[in-house]
Design a protein that fits this description.
Layout lengths: L2 E5 L4 H12 L5 E4 L12 H6 L7 E4 L2 E4 L1 H11 L10 H18 L5 H11 L4 H22 L14 H15 L8 H10 L3 H4 L12
Parallel strand pairs: 1-2
Antiparallel strand pairs: 1-3, 3-4
Helix pairs in contact: 1-3, 1-7, 4-6, 4-7, 7-8
Length: 215
């Protein structure tokens, strides 16, 4: 079955989908969409015909177009159930989903390129680094506390095998490190990140290992 992922190497949303595809050992073709060159390739007519939102990722499976990373990952979990990235217990599944959504809904969107571009045009000052770090640290503080209070975490966010939560967390930690966010206050998050970075599925999904990677 043909699986095509439209991706940008630095996109956190595309990054998390790449992790899940790798964890599930799904063969896929990457078609890069550069979000900065020529005003953004995501705004090309052909791409907008594929995804009217003009965003990545897009997953094409059997000529069906899927958008939004969370929905794509849920599809992959249902269509490719092995290895499972969600627990069998309903309460535990909700915990993993909740952890993931803190990142997808409350941290990542505020540091998204379109938000930063809008604020640059509106505020016209050098706010970007402080803005990024503030929202990452606020979100990570909550996640660290969830991990501390949880009976679930082990080598990964949920036990000793990767879950959906790790697929969402690792791209956000990558961004935090890239933007020199202080991580000493988040020892559990940092430990989980180090454990994930020892896994081939996570390493192969990193931005620097993508066909469109730039220095």
């Amino acid at each position: 079955m043909s699986v095509i992922l439209y991706s940008y190497f630095r996109s956190s949303a595309a990054y998390r989908v790449r992790i899940v595809l790798n964890l599930k050992n799904i063969d896929y073709e990457i078609r890069p969409v550069h979000l900065l060159k020529n005003g953004g390739e995501q705004f090309n007519v052909d791409y907008l015909a594929l995804n009217p939102q003009g965003r990545v990722p897009v997953l094409v499976v059997e000529n069906k177009v899927l958008t939004q990373s969370s929905a794509i990952i849920e599809y992959l979990e249902e269509a490719y159930p092995s290895p499972p990235l969600l627990p069998a217990n309903a309460i535990e599944r909700t915990y993993v989903r909740s952890f993931s959504q803190i990142i997808a809904c409350d941290i990542h969107p505020l540091n998204n390129l379109r938000v930063l571009n809008y604020l640059k045009g509106t505020l016209k000052n050098d706010f970007e680094q402080a803005w990024r770090i503030h929202w990452i640290q606020e979100g990570f503080t909550a996640l660290e506390q969830l991990l501390q209070k949880s009976d679930y975490w082990g080598r990964f966010c949920f036990g000793d095998t990767p879950s959906m939560a790790d697929a969402f967390l690792i791209p956000q930690v990558y961004n935090a490190l890239r933007f020199e966010c202080e991580m000493n206050s988040f020892p559990l998050i940092s430990c989980i990140y180090e454990n994930c970075m020892q896994q081939t599925a996570f390493l192969n999904a990193t931005p620097e290992n993508q066909p469109d990677a730039e220095s």
